[in-house]
Every structure is written in C-alpha cells, then in structure tokens.
Write a structure and sequence with these properties.
The complex is a heterodimer of chains A (325) and B (340). Chain A is an alpha/beta fold. Chain A has two domains: 2-185, Rossmann fold, CATH 3.40.50; 197-324, 3-Layer(aba) Sandwich (Rossmann fold). Helix content of chain A is 39%, strand content 22%. The N and C termini of chain A lie far apart (45 Å). The model of chain A has no long low-confidence stretch (mean pLDDT 98). Chain B has eleven helices and six strands. The chains are: A alpha/beta (325), B alpha/beta (340).
Amino acid sequence: MAELITYREAVARAIAQEMRRDDDVYFIGEDIAAAGGVFKATKGLLDEFGPDRVRDTPISEEAILGAAMGASMTGLRPIAEIMFSDFLATCWDIVSVEMAKTQYMTDGQVSLPLVIRTANGGGLRFGAQHSQAVENWAMMIPGLKVVAPSNPHDVIGLFAAAVRDDNPVMFFEQKSLYPTKGMVEDGEIVEELGTATIRRSGTDVTVVALASMVSRAEEAADELAEQGISAEVIDLRSLVPLDTRTVIESVVKTSRLVTVEENPRLCGWGAEVVSIVAEECIWHIDGPLTRITTPHVPLPSSDTLEDEVLPSVQRIVDGCIKAVS
Amino acid sequence: MVEARLPAPPSEDLLDIEDKTRLELYRQVVRLRRFEERAYRLFMDGLVKGTSHLSLGMEAIAAGVGTAMRADDYTFCTYRGHAHTLARGVPMEGVMAELLGRETGVCGGKGGSMHLTSVEHGVMGSYAIIGAHLPIANGAAWSAKARGTDQVTAAFFGDGATNIGAFHEALNLAKVWELPIVFVCENNLWMEYTPISSVTAVEHPAADRASAYGMESIVIDGNDPDIVYDHAVRAFDKARSGGGPSLIEAMTYRHGGHSRADPGTYRPEEEVEAWLARDPLNYRDRLLAVGIDESEIATIEDETDAAVDHATEVAKAASPPPLEAAFTNVWADGGWSWRN
C-alpha cells in the first residue's frame, strides 16, 4: 500500500520512523516540540516521544548544535533543527570547524552520528535573510555529508540513511516543497546516501538538478519534448557523497550537460559537477556545458523579483536548447 | 598591576584533605610543570612545530580538578590543554609524541598541541576556537543524563572566553537543562596580550555573570591545589547527585606568555613577581608543614623527571605518521572518498 503525503508530513514520519527504531535518537531545536515546528513539519512528535526525547531549546544555535555534537560523541544519535538554513551562519563554527574536523583531528577516536535538519531555499517571498540556498556552503567543508531531498519518499529514505550514518549529515529541506505531495509506500523506507536517481530518461541532454529544481527540470523536459528534444533528468539527492557515476554515464549517452542550481552562481555545486564532467568525459561532449543558477545576487522579497532571479522552467528550457544547438 | 584581582593569601586554616590526596595533587602539579618545561624547550629547539600554549604557573587548577574526577567523567579542554589532558592520567609518551607530530601521538600526529584527545581517559578533545567547546561539553553532559549514567563533564576555559556568545549560550542551556557539568574558568588576568579587565564590563569575567544564569558566583585561589580540589569535589558531587551545573572562576597567572616563544613582557614586572611568589609549586611547603616526609616528596620529583626524560626519548625516536594517514578518518568509516 501507498499513500499521497506532503513533504512536510514526510519529515515528521521520517523522524518518527527513526526514533521508534532507536532509543538513542533524540531531537532538539527551536519551537520543534510543543509548537510542532514553524513549518509544522514536526507535529505530533512531542506527543509520541515525550519531552525528554523531543525538546524545545532557547534561540541559541551554537548551544543547539554544540549539544548535538557532544551528545553524538558520547552515545546518542541526535537530530538538531536549525529553523532556517540562513541561521547556520550563527553557528557555522560548530558545523564547519568543530563537527567536520573532530573525527579527523582525533584520528578517529570519536565519531559523530548526528543530523542537522534545516529549512533551506527560496520561493516563499521571505527576503534575503530567510531564503538562501546554502547547501554549497556545507559541500565545501571536508567531513560533512550533504543531503537535499526533492520529494516525500526521499525525505523519509534519505533522512533514515542520515540518522544511521556515523558522520555529521546536513539535511536541507527545501521549504517551498513542504506543501507538495508525493506517493509514499507503507512501512520502513531507507535509501542510500550518494545515489542519484534518474527521474526521467532521455537521449539528447542530461539535466542535473537538486531539491526544488528537480520538478522544474521535469517541467522543462515536458516542454522540450514538445520541441523534439529528449531530456534526461537526474535528481542528485546528495552532494556529499556525490554520485558522479550516474551523471557521467548519462552524459556519455546524451553528450550534453545542463545543471540547475538554486544557489547563487559563484562556487555553486554545479560548477563542481561541470568540472568533473569536463575533466573526465570532455571527449563525449558535443555542446557547451551549461549552468542555470540564481544570479550572484541576494534574494529579493517581492514575488515579481524573486521569480525573476530563481531558475525558471523557461530558463532551463533555454539552457537545454543552447546546450544541444 | 590590578590589585583587586590578586586572590587573598591562602588561609592559615588547612582544609581537611588526606596526605595521600595531597601527595597525588603534588604529583600532578610536578608532572604538569616538568612536562611543560620540557615541551617549551623542545619548541625552542624546533622539535615542537607550529604553536604551543603552556599552563606554566596554572597547574594547580588542572591538578585539583583532575584529581577530583572519576575515571569515566568527561573533560573538554582548550588549545591550552596539555595540563588538563595529562591530569586525567593520559601517559606522557603519547602527549609528547603528539606535540612532536609523531605516529605514536595520542591523535596519531593529526591533532597536535591544540587538539589533544584521549577518549579512553575521558579527554573528549581540545578545541582551539575560543568558547566553542563549552556548548559541546554541554552535549556530553546531556548525553550522560539521557543515558542515565552519573558521569560529570568538566569544561575548562580561559578568561578570554567569557565575552564570546558561545559561553553565554552554553551557561544558559546548562542551567535550563540542569546538566551535570562543571565550568572552570582559569582567569589568568590576560586574555592573550590584553588585560581581560580592560575589555570586560564586570570585575570577575566568569563569576560575575553566574547569577545571570542562575548559578552561584564562585571565585577561588586557583594556585592552591587544596582549594581547587575542595571546590571541584563539591561541584562534582553536586552535579553527580542531580544538582545541576556549577561555574568556578579560579584566579591564576601564566608564568610565561600567551603562546610559542612569547616572553609576556607586556605585563607589569611587579604583577609578574607577585604571582611568581604564589607559584603552585609552593604546595611543597604545605606537604612538609603537614608532616609529609621530605623523601616522599623527593621521590615524586625524581620519578617525574625520569618519566619526562623517558617520554621525550620515546617521542623523539618514534616515526612520523605514514603519509596515508593524511587521508584517513575524515569519515567514521576511516575513508575520505566524497564521490563514487
């Protein structure tokens, strides 16, 4: 059996699945318990697991992530929520300098089985300080794993994999996806980090996307099909580990590559994908390696302006036409 | 010189501490002193590379707290963490080898002076970003409470850490969650090269903030091993029995500079002299005064010297880490591969 659920409901189901399975899993964050989360993505967890395991914190991001880190080093498998990914900047020391390096600098004396969940990205007209897509911040730090699901099934499966991983995992939930729906089968769902999925097969151009950009890439593929262009859409699902095998196999088949990133242009994850393709299979490429990104600007608040800068279906279509021409 | 910050002279009334414990405290102080004197010499000889931050003159704090701890308790140190690591019983050989960047170091040569860690001795790491380890130490205390053990966590930090946000976030959460943790501020009056008093709104940078977080204000003479030990025992007992966190501000002084070869000449001469006169090694006189035999004391000193010599020779003779070690333990599986 399967049911149609929202991305938001998938978050609560994912956390519950892992907390039922393992008593060492604890969940902390701002407004996550009694209030059920500002996006209502954690509703019902306090009732099921109680205030010791589902715990509200002060607005103290360093204290939240520090607690998660120290607990993960001493026997728990904590989940910590950072309400908006923009707020990671207030605790980036704990993420990038403490969590990411401690495994290494202690020569493996400790492991850090913890997950940081956070609402990421634009589309909700929240303006420049509550809309950033920052997954590439995390991608450039050795020692972190970085996940960004595009649909309810993957929210559950990838989250389960993140909780069971013995490393710090950054789990970026795209906040504009919370109300979107998808079919999810009954029972336990566990996926594997570092595995991209081919959302749609095609032969003319490979379109690599992540999180909210996946459905836009699929829409673009529909339009391209009407123009006689067959696009293959890949959902990367995680940036670290990165499934380069699936990307390269597809590019070898289609000879064209377009990446679709929500993050601003400079040093976005698409640049890494393009450089890998350029280095490892340039002789199979027949058109310009093309990146569709948000331009290098902060996100504006006005809906008219935000829609102008986020990658649109039309820009993806245009990018694919350029790549195949 | 900042007169107000000199702690009162040790009381004539001796604390009720057993001779056996006093000998252990003295052994700790001597061990930390002699080890770090050697580490400084090895730094000046170019064998300890990078940087090094010594606790010379401040040993009574690590010694007193370390002696009060149980084997399964947790310690979180700063980059000035040689003393606190050794005070949990971590062998000198592994610490010295780590300072020298050798394969046999406690972190395989990948941590260095600022990141000493020995999980098997409860030393959960030394963190080199000011204040960052305080919220992390809370996590270990939270975990102990959640797992239903009665382990207690000690978090050491300098006066300079008291003006960073992580300190305040950590104290608040520790109290709100009533965590079994003891925060120990080593107030050596100098942040790095700047007097803490010149950049802090209150006289006692840690203790004067305690009331803001529902904790008792405690200022002690951090150069007296008996006093440190006595306060540590009380704070650990309180935490272990569910009484929540404590914050202790221990007044002390660096005999040397902030780091590396810094001679610390920016400090007033009379201030340095006043504190040199309060050397934690004066504890030797206390042992004699309570009737401990000179020969027992001398034995500790001789054994320690021999141990430092031995650790130095063993560390010097050890191999550098194998090159492949640069690519291990990025992940919990030991690997570093980020792609397939």
